[in-house]
């Protein structure tokens, strides 16, 4: 189980789990900074990705080890804005990805992301 004192947890779960075969599965990451949601979809996207990066580092990985990302949006109309921030964050690295709209995101968020990384 992966934990970090830098990332808030909203429930009784691990931030990530590292399997013996080298995979790291993260829990959902919100745009929370200092315990509160940041303002706007672009900011929440970036903070969510930065929070995932912190968790990945705790697991011995980087964003370039990410093989798959799941994005949950409160509104698919934000897809283009999310893509812009996401593309800049991953600097040309292109993990597999799924993006869906959800009726509600925890804590009233606009976006939640999780990922799977692989490190040999």
From TrEMBL:
InterPro entries: RutC-like_sf (IPR035959), YjgF/YER057c/UK114 (IPR006175). Coiled coil: none annotated. SUPFAM superfamilies: YjgF-like. It holds the Pfam family Ribonuc_L-PSP. PANTHER family: 2-IMINOBUTANOATE/2-IMINOPROPANOATE DEAMINASE RIDA, 2-IMINOBUTANOATE_2-IMINOPROPANOATE DEAMINASE. This is YjgF/YER057c/UK114 family like protein. It comes from Aduncisulcus paluster.
């Amino acid at each position: 189980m992966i934990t970090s004192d830098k990332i808030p947890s909203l429930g009784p779960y691990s931030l990530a789990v590292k399997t013996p075969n080298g995979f790291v599965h993260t829990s959902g990451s919100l745009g929370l900074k200092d315990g509160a949601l940041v303002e706007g979809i672009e900011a929440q996207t970036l903070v969510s990705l930065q929070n995932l990066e912190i968790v990945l580092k705790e697991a011995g990985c980087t964003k370039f080890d990410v093989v798959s990302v799941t994005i949950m949006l409160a509104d698919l109309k934000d897809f283009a804005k999310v893509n812009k921030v996401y593309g800049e964050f991953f600097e040309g690295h292109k993990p597999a990805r799924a993006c869906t709209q959800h009726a509600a995101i925890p804590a009233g968020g606009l976006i939640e992301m999780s990922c799977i990384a692989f490190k040999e």
